[in-house]
Amino acid sequence: MTEINSNEAEGRLVSTRRTALKHGAVGAAGIFGGSSLLAACGSDGETTSTSSAAGPPTNISGTINALCWEGYTDPAWTKSFTKETGVKVKSTFIGSNDELVAKLRGAPDQYDLVTPSSDTTNILIDANQVRTIDLNQVPNAKTTMKFFQTAPAVNVDGKLYGVPVAWGFIPLIYDADKIKPAPTSWNDLWSSDYKDKVSVWQDIALIYTTAIQLGYKDNIYTLTDTQLEAIKKKLIEQKPNIRKYWTTAGELANLFANNEVTIGMSFGGVTVAQLQGEGRNVQEVIPTEGATSWFDNWMIPAKSKNPDAALAYINYFHKAENQKEFAKVTGYGITNENAFDLVTSEYSKVYELDNTDFITSLDYWKAVPRRQKYLDVLNAVVAA
Questions:
Q1: pLDDT tens readout for residues 114-155
Q2: 260 and 375 share a domain?
Q3: Fewest Cβ atoms closer than 10 Å to its Cβ: which of 5, 75, 77, 91?
Q4: Which of 169, 97, 186 lies closest to 364 in space, CA to CA?
Q5: Alpha-carbon span 256 to 258, nearest angstrom
Q6: Nearest to 246 by CA among 93, 373, 118
Q7: Cα dihedral 271/119/381/264 (nearest 10)
C-alpha cells in the first residue's frame, strides 16, 4: 500500500509507445450474462450518490480519499481539478482487488472513491458498500462505451453503481535487450534460462493466467478442485525462477530498473510506460495461449464523507482532454468515445477503438463464486 497526495506527487509517468497486445487475447462473452455473477442486492440499505439534479455537483470542498490503482489519480489531471474546484485528492494505491475489499470493509467511511475490477464490483454491490450513480450528475461519462455502462458488473436491476475507468490485458513483460528472440508463450516463465529472474503478480489473476496456460479457458472463473490443484502444482514448479512476487506496478518497475528480473507477468500500461520513459527497452506481449482482460470502475462507497466531490472528480476525469492525458500517462485503454479522435493513430490501432466488436468480445474478468478457494491456492503457492 502506498499513500500519496496526488497533487504533490513528483515525476508523472511518461507518455510512451504502447505495444500491440490484441493478438491472442482470449475471445469470449466474458462478464456478460454469466451465471457466476453474484446475485444482485435488493433495495434495502441502498444508498444513492446524491440528488438527481442535472449536472455535476458544484458546491464542493475538502478532500477526496481514493482507494485505487496506480495511475488513476495522476497529477496530469488532478492538479487542474484541485485548481478549479479547491478539492484535494489523496490516494491510497492498492496491489489487488482483494486488498481493496478488505480495506473498504475495515474502514468503510474512510474512502470516497474506489476502483474495483469487473470480478470484484458485484461483491461490493451485493454487500451494499457502494452507492448508485446518476449519470446526469456525471454528464461527461454519458459518452463512455455503452458496453461498459450496461455490464452486469456495474449495472444491476437497471441501477448503475460504477463508471468505467479503463480496460486492458494481462500481458507477459520482458527486457528486450536481454531476451532475444522475444518470448511467445507463458511457458517461457518456467524456462531454466530465467532462474531467479522472474516476477509475477501476487494476485488472483495469476490463477486466471495459469488456467489459460493449462488449457482451462472455458471455465477460468469456475475451476474445479482438480484444476486448481494442477495450477498449484504448476506454480510451485516455477518457484526456482521467482525472484519476487510483486504487488504493485511500481514494485515491478523497480525490479526491472534494478536488473533483478528480466521477464514476468504484468497488468500492462503503467510499468512499461514508466520504464520506457526511463530509457529501458521493456516490452509486453500477449502469449500464444492468450490472456484475460479487465476493466476497472469508479465507485463511490456507501459511507463516503464527500460523495459530491467524488462525482465531480469522475465527471472531470471523463473530460475529453483528460481521457487523452490518461491514455498518455498509463497506456491503458480509454472508455470514453469523446476522446477517441484525440489519441494517436497507433494507440487507436492497438485498442481497436474503431472496432467495438473487438472490445465486446474480450474475456473480461468476472465474479468467481469460489474466490476464497482460488486465494487459498495462491497463498499456498507463495508460502511453498
A1: 999 999 999 999 999 999 999 999 999 999 999 999 999 999
A2: yes
A3: 5
A4: 169
A5: 5
A6: 93
A7: -20
Q: How would you label 79-108 residue by residue, b for 16+ Cβ within 10 Å and e otherwise?
A: bbbbeebebbbbbbbbbbbbbbbebbeeee
CATH number at residue 101: 3.40.190.10
Give the three-state DSSP class for 227.
helix
Q: What is the mean pLDDT of residues 205-211?
A: 98
Residue 287 lies in a domain: yes
CA–CA distance, 179 with 193 (Å, rounded to integer): 10
Task: Convert the pLDDT of each residue in 318-374 to its tens digit.
Answer: 999 999 999 999 999 999 999 999 999 989 998 999 998 888 888 899 999 999 999
Please tell me the predicted confidence (pLDDT) of residue 223.
98
Handedness of CA 46, 164, 69, 315 (dihedral sign): negative
Give me the residue label for grid cell 463464486.
369
Cα-to-chain-centroid distance, residue 212 = 19
174 and 321 both lie in a single domain: no
Please tell me whether residues 205 and 64 are part of one structural domain: no
pLDDT of residue 363: 81
On whether both 375 and 267 belong to a single domain, the answer is yes
Q: Identify the pLDDT of residue 106.
A: 98
Domain that holds residue 95: 2-14+38-167+295-343
Q: Is residue 353 part of a domain?
A: no
What is the rounded distance in angstroms from the CA atom of residue 190 to the CA atom of residue 205?
17
* Distance (Å, whole) CA 112 – CA 371: 26
- Which residues have a Cβ under 8 Å from the Cβ of 49 and sit 6 or more positions away? 131, 132, 133, 134, 137, 300, 307, 310, 311
CA distances from 342 to 79, 195, 339, 348, 374 (A): 21, 43, 5, 9, 40
Distance from the Cα of residue 374 to its chain's centroid: 19
Do residues 111 and 259 share a domain?
no
Summarised one tens digit per residue, pLDDT across range 229-274 is 999 999 999 999 999 999 999 999 999 999 999 999 998 888 998 8
Q: Are 24 and 286 spatial neighbours (Cβ–Cβ below 8 Å)?
A: yes
Is the pLDDT at 6 greater than 90, yes or no?
no
Q: How many domains does the chain have?
A: 2
